[in-house]
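Hi team,

Filling in the usual template for the complex we talked about on Friday. All components are listed, including any nucleic acid strands or ligand strings, so the model treats them as one assembly.

SUBMITTER: L.P.
PURPOSE: interface mapping
COMPONENTS: two
RESIDUES: 885
SEQUENCES:
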Amino acid sequence: MRAPHAVRTSPSATVRLAVLGVLLLVACARREGCTGDYCGTLVIATAGEPQSLLPPLLTAAVDQAVSDQLFLRLADIGRSTNTVGDEDFQPQLAERWEWADSVTLVFHLDPRARWQDGRAVTATDVAFSFDAYNDPAVNSPFRAGVRAISAVTARDSLTAVFRFRKRYPEMFFDAVFHLRVLPAHLLRPIPRDQWSSAAFGRKPVGDGPYRFVSWKAGEQLELAADSTFFLGRPHLRRVIWRFTPDLQVAVTQLVADQADAIEVLGPPDNVKRVRAVPQLTLYPYRGATYGYLGFNLAANGDSSRPHPLFGDRELRRALVMAVDRERLLQNVWGDAAKVPPGPEPQLWWIWDPETRVLPHDTAQASRLLTRLGWRPSDHDGVRERRGNRLAFRIMVPTTSAIRRQYARLLQEQYRAIGAEVELDEVEPSVFLQRASAGRFDALIAAWNADPTPASSIAQTWTREGVGRSNYLRYLNPAFDGLVERASSGKGGRAATQRAWRQAIELLNQDAPAVFLYASENVAAVHRRVADVTIRPDSWLALLRTWRIPAERLIDRDRVER
Amino acid sequence: MTAWLVRRVAAAIAIVWAVVTVTFVLLHLAPGTPFLPAAETPVDPAVLQRLRSQFGLDRPLPEQYARYLREIARGNLGESFALHRPVADALAEALPNTLTLAGAALCIEFVLGLALGVYQAARARRLGDLALGNATLFLYSVPTFWMGLLLLLVFGQWLRWFPVGGVVDVVTHESLPWAGRVADRLWHLALPAGTLGLVGAAGTARFERAAMLEVLGQDYIRTARAKGLPERRVVLGHALRNALLPFVTLFGLAFPFLLTGAVLVETVFAWPGMGRLAAEAIFRRDYPVVTAAAMLAGGMVVLGSLLADLLYAAADPRIRTGDG
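RESULT (copied from the run log):
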C-alpha cells in the first residue's frame, strides 16, 4: 500500500540532490581566497610519476619537468635551443662566465642564490655536484654526459672552475645541461650508495623558483612558488602534478576541466578531442622524438653473423625505396609530424630538408630485388631466392598505437613488392630487452633525443653504441668519421651543419632504416593562463613567467592551502 | 572446530607461500628486464649492470629466492626497483585505497544485489522480474573496465556530476574541514565503487534470486502461507533468512573478484590502489613490488575465504558438527 500523499522523488533527482549537497558542503567550507597577480594554481595532468627528484637520478620526462622547478643549472639553454658554443645560453646560478683558456671554464655564481633552507649556494656545491654525478656509487645516468670534464674546483665561495679533457663545440652544454647543482650541506652526510632510496629524493630542498610541498604516491605532487626567488618571483602560486596511469586518462582529466595543462597530447585523435574544448588552448612545439623502421644488420640473436636478408645493403635500399613515407605519415599522423631527412627529431638545429634521401620508387625497388635474384613465386607472389622467401618479422611495442598502425601499413606496402611481413607485438620491457640483445629481424623504434645531435647520434648509430643503443648493429667507419668531424664543430656553424648533412646522407645511402616520422608535440594549457612560452627541449623551463591575470582567476586559483 | 581451524590456517599459509613462490619464479623467468627507462632514451649498460648487482639480480635464481624468503621472514619486503623506496611503504599507501574501494563496492554489491534478488524472486516470472533479469544479465556480462569508461564518460565528462579520477580534489582537499574532506572522498569514490559494485550486484542478484526461489518452494513456506501470514513477512521473515545461508559463500568469492576488478577500475579512474601499483610494477618488471602485491592479494583472498567458511560454520550447525 502506498501512502496517497507521499512525496516521490525520481532517482535522478535524488542523485542531483546528493551531488548538490556534497558540492554545497565543499563550497561552504572554502575560505576567503587569494587575489591579485601572484595567485593561480596550475594542475598538470601527466601519465606516470617521478621515480626520484634527486637530480643525478632523474630518468623520465616528468622527473625532469618537476626538477626544473626545484634545482637550477649554472646556465640554461636559450630559446634557440642552440647547444654549440655558449652564446645562446642564459645565466641561472652563474651570473657570468669566462674562458680562462681553451679547456678551462670559470663560472661566477650569483651571490643572491639561496637554498630554500636559507643557506647560500656556493662553488663548493658545484664541485660537490660534479663529484656526485661522476661517482659510480651514485650510478647516475648522466655520468656519461660529463665524462669530458676532468675536474671541477671551487676557487672561492662564488667561483667554480671547470677543466675539460679536450676542446670541442659542446663543452659549455656538457658543463651546464647535465649538471643540476646539489646542496652539499644536506647530501654530504648521506652515503652515496644510499642516495637512490634517500628521503631527500622524495622531499628535496632546492634552489629553484618553486619549493617542494608534498608528494602523495600515485596521486599528486605539489610545489609552491618561492616568493623570494632571486631571479624573480614566479606568478603561479601553486603547481600540482596529477599522476594518471596512462595518457588517455590524463587527457580525460584535462577535457573534464580537472586539470589545466598537459605536456604532450600524443596521437592526432587526442589533439582533435582537445581542440573541441573551449577552455583549452593548444601550443604546438618542435618534438624531440623520431621513429624509424630499423633492419637488424646482424643475424637475429647472433651478432657475429650478418643477417641473411638485411646484411645485404642493396636489399635494404630496395626495402627503403618501397616505402611511401609521406602516405604513411598522412595516414597515421595527419599534420602532426614530418617525414625526417634522417635520424633527426624536429628539435635539432641541424634539421635540413635538403638532405638527400632514397626516393620512394616501388618500380625501381622491384627491379632491384629482381636483379638481386629475388623473384615472385608462382603460388603466393612472395619473392624467393634459392628456396628462401623474402620474409621477415617486424617487432613493435604493444603500448604504442602509432607504431602498431605503422607496422600494419608497412606490412601492406611490402606485400605490394612481394615481401612477406609478420608482426611481433610485444610489451615494452620485452621490446627493449630483445632490441638490446639483437633478437629481432626488424623493429619500429623511436628515440627521445637530447637537445644535441652529437651525443644522440653517436650513441644510437655509430660503433660507440654497438651493444648499447645501436640496436641495428649499423657499422660504417666512414659514417663514424663524418659524425666525429661534425661533432668537432670545426669551421663554425655553417660548416658543422654541412658536415652533419654529409654524415646523414651517407647513412641514408646505407639504408639501415626507414626514417618514418619526427613528431611535433602539442601541449594544451587552460585559456586563463597567459604568457605561456614553451621551450621545445623542456616544456616547463619558463614556467615561472606564466601567469594568470587577476581577472581570470577561478575557484581553484584562490584556494588557500 | 579447533582442529578444523588449525587445518585451514595451515592451508592458508601454504597457499600464500605457493603464491609467492610461483610469482617469484614466473617473474624471473618471464621475458623483459627491470630498470629500463619508460621513454626510449639511450641507456648506459654499465648503469644497468650496477643496478642489477646492487639488487642482487646477478646472483643465481635459487640464491635470490632463498634471500627473498629470508627477508620476508624478517618482515622485510625489500626495496622497489622503480620507486626508490621500501615496498612496505608503497603497499601501506596503496592498500587502504584498495580496501576502501573494495569495501564500498562490496556494500553496493551486497545491498543492491540482495534487494534486486529478493524483489525478483517475490515477483518471479512477472514483468518486473523479466526486465530486471535482462538488465542484470546485461550488467553481469559487461566487462568492468567498459562499465567504468561508460560511467566516466556519462557522469564524469558529460554531466560532470562526479570527478573523473583520483581519490580527492588535489587543489581543495587540504583546505577543507573534516566533514568536507569526508564528502570529497565519497564524491571521488562514487564512480569507481559504483562501477565495481554494479557489475558485482548483477551477479549477486541472479544468485540470490535462485536461492530465494528454491527456498520459496519449500514446505515450511507453504505452511507459513497457509497460516495466513502476510506475503511480506513470508518473504522477508522466513524465506530470506534461509536464502542468506548460501549468500555467505559469495563473500569469499566476491573478494577475489573485487581485487582483480580493482586493477582495471583503478587504472580507468586513476585510483592509487594496489591494483594500479601492481599493474605498473609488472610493466616495469619491479619484482619486489609484484611479488609482495601478489602475496598480499593472496593473503587477503585466503583470509576472505576463511572468513566466509567461519561465517558459514557459525550459520549452519551441520558444518560445525561435521554432519554436513
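MY TAKE: Residues 96-321 of chain B form a domain with the MetI-like fold fold (CATH 1.10.3720.10). Chain B has twelve helices and no strands.

Thanks, L.
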